[in-house]
Amino acid sequence: MALLHISSLYVGYNSLNVLTDVNLDVEAGTQVVLLGANGSGKTTLLKSLMGLLPVHAGQIVLDTQDITRLGPSARVRAGLAYLSEIGVIASLSVEDNLNIGGYYLTRTLRRQQIRSLYQQLPILYEKRKNPASSLSGGQRKILAFAKVLMGQPRLILMDEPSAGLAPVMVNEMIQILNTYRSHGPAFLIAEQNVKFLEGAHYVYVLDNGQIRFQGTPQDLDADAHIKAAYFGLT
Amino acid sequence: MLNTQLVEAGKRQRGRLLINGVIPFLVLVGFSLSPFVYANQAILFQMMAFMALAQGVNLLYGFTGYLPFGYVGFFGIGAYGMAISIQLLHFPGLLAVVMGGLLSAIIAIIFLPLLRLSGAYFAISSLAAAEVLSNVVSNSAMIHITNGPYGEQLTQSYHPVTSYVAMVIVLVLTTVTVIFIRNMPFGRALMAIREDPVSAAMAGIAVVRSRSIVWLLSALIAGLTGAIFGWHLSVFYPNTVFDLNISILAIVFTLFGGYGTVTGPVLGSIVLYGLYNAIGISDPQYFQLIYGLLIVALVLFLPGGIISLIQRRGNYVP
Amino acid sequence: MKSTAILGMAAVLLSASLAGCGSSPSTAPSAKSIKDITIGTLYAKSGAFATSSMPEYSGLTFWASQINKTGGVYVKALHKKVPVKIVAYNDQSSATTATTLYSQLITVNHVNILVADFGSVLTSVAVPIAQEKKMLLFDQTGTGASFFTPSNPYIVLTSLPTSGLWPTSLAQYLIHKGYSRIAIVYATNDFDQSQDQTLVSKLKAAHITPVYNNGVPTSTSSYSVLLNNMSHTNPQAVIELGYPNNDIAFLQALKASGDHFNMVFTIFPGQLPQLFVSSVGPSSINNTYTYPAPPLLTFSHVNYGLNTAQFDLAFKKATGQSTNFLSIAGYNTGLIIQKTLSTANSLNQLSLRHAVSRFSGSLSTLDGTFKIDSKGAQIGETLPVGKITTNSKGRVSVQFVTSPNS
Amino acid sequence: MFTYSLVSGILFGIFFGFMALGLNLIFGVMEMVNLAHGDFVVLGGYVAIMALTSLHINPVVSLVIALVLFFLVGLGLFFPLIPRLSNSRDPEMLSLILFFGLSQVLEALMVIKFGVNPESLPLSVFGNSSWHFLGQSYQIAWIVTALVSLVMITLTYVFLYYTSLGRAVRAVMGNREEALASGLPVKRTSAIIFAIGIGLAAMSGVLSPLMIGSLDPTSGLGLTTIAFAIVVIGSLGNPLGSVVGGLVYGVSLMLMQTYLSSWSVLVPYLLLLIIVLVKPSGLLGKGVRHA
Questions:
Q1: Cis peptide bond prior to C295, omega within 30° of 0
Q2: What value does the CA radius of gyration of chain C take, rounded to a whole number of Å?
Q3: How far away is chain C from the Cα of D189, in angstroms, using its nearest Cα?
Q4: What is the CATH number of domain D2-115+143-278?
Q5: How far, CA to CA in Å, does C176 sit from each of A142, C202, C382?
Q6: Between B108 and B202, where is the model more confident?
Q7: Subunit contact A91:D173, Cβ cutoff 8 A
Q8: Cβ separation C216–D262 shorter than 8 A
Q9: Shortest CA distance to D216 belongs to which of D123, D144, D115, D134?
Q10: Residue C23 confidence class, pLDDT cut points 50, 70, 90
Q11: pLDDT at site B218
């Protein structure tokens, strides 16, 4: 049984469907990449998984629990976390952001988590009293990542972690992700940057609201047709 | 093939304009004839004044999204512009009315920067602006111009019939203006701005200029209405023409009927002002309560006004 | 074609709503067929003027019920007694609404007698309508001097002198006491500002210049700083001219400040003593000065209608309300109407007006001597100055410091 | 004269800062202007007046009664109105109109229940002693009011900056979308802040007759406008901003009464217009149209 199991999901705005018949699984502890161009429906899928958009039809199951109708806060308590493109609350201090990420933890556990994250990411400790708005773009991504880790989720939904980052920072981001591979939460990463395929366990390709391909990164590499059609790669 | 489609579209367009034209025509005929049937001209007159004000609010709120709580400021300035023209410049009534409208438009130019504000900021700031205008007019320091707290006495120019006719004309012109704006490309540009100002600006629509034009037009409507209203009263205090309830009623009538349409404010004014006089006169104790509840219910269940009940089924409403 | 249906609906609604506004116009009654005298008036059940308007209206309706008990009012033109019927609408203190309602009374209800609502603001809009429709306006308490012009015979002020006359007694008293340091704060509305003007000009005529004379907005509700500023001028007399709300706020601030002046004067404790006792407490009006109005002011010589004591008793019995100045003012209006109808030779509005002029000066009611000038403005019924004493139970009494019959 | 105006302006300002606090919180968290704010203030005043005159309850006790009672009223109003409003097409505008309707309803109900006469509390309710400072004396009621206001503002500050729920409130103020995406209980937070905002409005109302003389059912809208001006002058969502706004208002009002008395009524309106027109971006980034 997969950690996250999505079956025949339809999501949209008003009566219009943006996603049609999406089926997707994420196994515990794996990194799954959701590839797709702008407007393919990646963010819509993540938002509906997080409960930020209403589902028209279909089912979302997290580890045997049907979460299709739950609100975002209930999903966080069930073990989901969502790293949006913005990712932080700019007006709050770094430490407050971390506290927000661990909102449902006990006070002691929250303090413990913050201490361990400060050890892993010392830049956050340095800036802990500063508002998040004073951080650079890369530092904000790190904070956003630390913020979702705070709640000790089982599955992290990442929306375009590479957006707005310099190529150097993208590499750093991938490295940080790799340190968490296989001994931490599972990841579902929505991206259009194929660099994120490196280290991924499984890939889905989303186009125009539908899954066009699924398989390992190697399978994708072998499928010249998909590569050419969606990524202009040859 | 394409040609016939164009002809069809053209026919539909003309048909719609014809239906639109029915409204000012009915307004004209209705208010011109009703004094012969119904003796209390004051009610008819005020219904017209509120209808014109409701159309002014409609123009501003329905087409640009600015809700002017302080709309009465323009109304009061119109009344005072008229009174000053009569008292100090010895203008005849009709010319004084035009002066009232113009003064109102000039004040609107001074307050143009308010359009930089959005939502509640605009609504409450416009209220503050109206309070400022009212208090400046009534201050003793202005006694040689506005007669300060003593109010205006224009009994020498009191002319109920002429002012009634002037009100009919201004109301019809106002209605026609709203029809034109709604059906011209300018109106569609306004709607685009209202929906999404950023995209509209990128599509090359002169956002600031379009809004400013509507702002001035609605100020002119309120100014002319206020001027005729003051003329019709001929004795008034600053409180009378700067009464906040005037804005409130005009806004409620517009919202009740349905903003962004031509019919909405007309319908809203007839129904609610009629109710106000039918129920309100005998027992207004509960009238404020009723229309307070009506507003709450409207916002929650029918934000488009009663017109939207008809529009909902895909019908065209002028 | 839905839209035509809507427009049709709108037209129906228009006519329906207008029909709802009143009965359809009837033809003007001829003198012969008159079965009752209709008196049209407005009252404000809510809004800024409700406090004053409602007791005034009770006074008038009390008069009507009293007169109907005796078989009606004697109408000389008909040589018989005719019952009185009051037609009244609620204007909610809005001058705009009042306009349509005055018009309704005249054009739809065709009332025989038109009576204004309380105060200048609600009376003002009736003045041109009454003049245009040639209806005599019985103006009860609208004291604005500008209403009364030589060219307009269609107005008569019944129950108060015009506001410019009020400060006569006050100026007289201040001059008599030899106060040279006088501080005045007034609300900038026509009622108070015109009193300030009269007072200052009368003082100046006696070579007294007030040490402090400033206007404040009528909405002012905190007077502490103003009072502090006034006390810096070391005044002997502190005079506050305002509406009831201003007077309440002023007296409250005065009490809290602990300042003491030889004389403190406000207008409304003399008219609405109970309001002041209940809102600011009896001690805050104790030893202050005011214009005592009926019932604090009683006239020994009453030649028409009830005297104050009789009115107090009968009014309380009939309505359950206690007497205040405004209920007396409303009752007094009724008396003036009664006298007018019994004097006039016809029900024509101008002959009503002539009748009023004829008995002007000879009528003494519980509101004083009724006397109007040629413009219809009240010059009798002047108010003296008095000093208030209260006991802890809230009983208010007054000691006159100028002659009540001046 | 100057000292007295200044000190009383400060005492007044602290009170008005407190009076605006509830509006500020609701505005910050929900981006809705509670146009009925002033009416809740007036209702709080009526609670105090009724409690004192008919039950002889001291206003200090009424402070607690008003807070608790109107906290519950706030909760009762939130659930039928706000969630539906938030899902509508234009929540900001529609909420403005809705609260305007609510304000009309409250005003009408107050007229029906309490009548139209102005009502007040005796200034001697906290005793007749006064406070001497820099050669002037100030009534004890003002001092009590200013102290209560300061305590409540401080408590609100502590709540926002030193509790977990307060942190969530600031997160919602900072970025509602992101707060939702972070899984914060946004709806519950909004409900609590709405209820607190209305509770605080009524609580400040208990003291209001002591500061503004007397109350009647129509006093509400004027108080709402003053409160809005104060919120805009200070900064949104920061209780200390309310204090700054309140002080600016209180001191300008008192100085204006001293030196230009007949124009004093213009103070809140002019301050509001000057701030929104001269410095729109600095103080209120959110209020400006971006096109």
A1: yes
A2: 23
A3: 37
A4: 1.10.3470
A5: 86, 12, 18
A6: B108
A7: yes
A8: yes
A9: D115
A10: very low
A11: 96
